[in-house]
Amino acid sequence: MPGAEKHLRVTFLVAPAYLWLALTVFLPLAVMLFFSFLTAVPVGAREATLTLQHYVSFFTKKIYWYNALRSLELATYVTLACVVLGYPVAVILTRMITGRAREAIFLMIILPFWTNALVRTFSWTMVLRGPFDIIFTYPAIVIGLVHAYLPYAVLTIYVSLQAIDERLIEAARALGASKRQAFMRVMLPLSLPGVLAGVFLIFIPVTGSFMEPRILGGKDAIMLGPIIESQFTATFNWPLGAALSFMMLAIILLMLALGYPLLQRHMER
Amino acid sequence: MRFLGLTYLGAILAFLYLPIAIMMLMAFNQSPLYELPFTFDLVWFKALAGNERLLTAGWNSVWIALVSSAIATSIGTLAALGLARNEFTGKRFLQLMLFPPITIPWLIIGTAMLIFFFWTGVGRGLHAILLGHVALSLPYVIVVVGARLATHGPELEEAATSLGARPAQAFFRVTVPLLAPGIVAAGMFAFAVSFDQFIISYFLAAPGTSTLPVEIFTAIRKGFTPEINAISSIVIIISMSLVLVVSRFYRFGGER
Predict the structure, then answer these.
(1) How far is the alpha carbon of B194 from chain A, nearest alpha carbon, in Å?
(2) Where do the structural domains in chain B lie, given as residue ranges?
(3) Which chain A residue shows the shortest CA-CA distance from B79?
């Protein structure tokens, strides 16, 4: 096929999807970045000038930076809990269960993940108020989020465990490694890419969560996510909300930048 | 060891399903205050049948999911074909561009859409929600259809063409049937992404008209009744059946 014709055909194929993404995701992000430097929403006769005040507020006002740290703290707890609870599930699935049973249980674990997150969070209000009565507390938020993101951890770790050549573990055992050693020196290092992928997939959305804290957290819900939400739905300070959104994005990118070399090193092996 | 492992697996499954089961059970309990003992009653489903607000929101959710998945599946499949069957400069860039919509928290994307749609005059409402839902489903469609495309090379289409099929014939008689399971799975993924989407819809909904998850959230925050359990149970059943059907077409990771 001649180059120009091929070029035209590819453009025709990919243009609708990417135009759509550009107009509804990338351009809006760019406009929000612009808004984050404005003093007010430029609507009607209202004057709006450029300013850095919202970004300055983030670092100088405790309510913002402190609650950003609280969001990160929450994401750390939830991620840790998901990996610690999910790793054994993945091991059991790969090493103790086979065939159709494995397929069925695997599907059962990821099934809730594809159902409505809001409804699942709501379902915890039934359980946590009853005999335990920890609704509207910090642990309630953690439990709800672990419930929401545990399937991610199981999924990514399971995929990396499945890729491990069984003979490597057998070789370690044959050469005199104890079960514990074979796990610590062979299986765990080989599964780390899956663990890290799970960590990223959980840490990022939990940092940005606002619905779960709102429903389960009561007064403990005050974190960066809910604060950003209220700038858009309650106090209508959009430029501040935009700046806080970008600070959240910056924090997430920083985390990715710190974690990426780690991920890359393990991928190369 | 095996016993211990299976017990642990059972405990995790209980953790995943018990709250959902209790929530559903409470939809059939007579008490408006979720009180025990359990008395079976369909009163909350009857109340639901007369709740115009929730029913309208439910209908909105369904048609938005249908329309947005149809749009996302068609233009997403085209993009997957363009990306898979050709080498060109910028291809890697286009593939990378699929990640931000999936990885950036929906809170950030949702607020950005709100600002942009407001600023450009698109405004809030069901049309804005539809625009947003298509964007969220697109990367999933492109990835799922792309994965299906990667399982076979262009040889079959080439064979068809060399045997005298016109390009359109080769596309509809060879490529589409080969892709069909991927396209069906992608379409159902897209439906699920839209039907379950709360955050984007929450920011883009105009007062008074919204989708089911937004109405449920509002109701939860105002103080809910078992009616919310009833509608939530229906939502969960729909999503779960959908995923079970998808799983017949598409493997969720791992080898069969």
Answers:
(1) 10
(2) 1-41, 44-249
(3) A14
